[in-house]
Model the fold of this input.
Amino acid sequence: MTKINWFPGHMNRARREIGEAIRKCDVVVELVDARLPRSSRNPMLGELAREKPILTLFTKSDLADPVVTEAWTRAWEGPRPLALVMSDRKSVAKIPERCRELAPHRGGPGKTVRILVVGIPNVGKSTLINTLTGKRVAKVGDRPAVTRRAQRVELDHDLSIFDSPGVLWPRLDDQEGARRLAASGAVGENAFEPVDVAGWAVCFVATTYPELLEERFDLDEGVEEILSRTSPDPTDATRAVLLLEAVGRRRGALRSGGHVDLERAADIFLRDLRAGKIGPISFERPDADPA
Ligand SMILES: Nc1nc2c(ncn2[C@@H]2O[C@H](COP(=O)(O)OP(=O)(O)OP(=O)(O)O)[C@@H](O)[C@H]2O)c(=O)[nH]1
Ligand SMILES: [Mg+2]
Done:
């Protein structure tokens, strides 16, 4: 397994800039990916935010397993997180009230509750800001935007939001979390081997959500069958290869001689997984060993 080694550039500068932005706000809105709340959380946010209240939002909850998301919101320390879809106006409409509750000393004339949105790359920060403001203030799919001078946009007479989010870095100290991040789409494409990450992910889906995998790819050889004759040992790649081959064969990802093109099969699988086409899938559970 090739090591995933990725870091958003200029981390120290990002850390300083976010520290400054946090000082100018009243509520920090922290975005984590509902599919992997543990690994998509920034390890230093608590320290950076110090005494400022943090409202956690689980983004992309349309892509996560709702039962697991519910368990996560109950197990979370601090104010109960909201599980949302960032592009959905009704979904994000609950945020202002929660922010007002978290900053009761603010809200009078000249004392708007100032909200700062923070989170790791690709978690949905720009989408949320645009949905909340009803404007296209932040570029969706854009790369880290901390360098732009942050402006505040009024959300209401007593509430405002910075139009530039704070881009945080995820935890990459453990390789299993890094693999989950890569599978979810949070890690730059050049930092990992797609066949490694897709191989891990297809084994995870096969063991955790076998019926979703069978249905999406209409697998002629049952997933159970492949699982029963291969080892779950992650150092043995047989299971991953057989599953990716089954996916690739179904999608016509073949090379001359009828061999499956594993790289193409990996791309197909990861694209479907990230778009939610396989079904709602959570990569982490609150009760599992902290990884
Ligand atoms: N399915 C789903 N997709 C989402 C959701 N929120 C954001 N996205 C998608 O995720 C991708 C990244 O969204 P952005 O809003 O650009 O993320 P960001 O946090 O601003 O990313 P950076 O600027 O790179 O740090 C886009 O393709 C969005 O359409 C959500 O709740 N559900
Ligand atoms: Mg953005």
User: Anything to note?
Assistant: Confidence is low (pLDDT under 50) at residues 142-147. The pocket of guanosine-5'-triphosphate (ligand 1) is lined by residues 59-60, 62-63, 85-87, 119, 121-127, 140-145, 167 (CB under 6 Å). The chain has two domains: 11-167, 193-274.
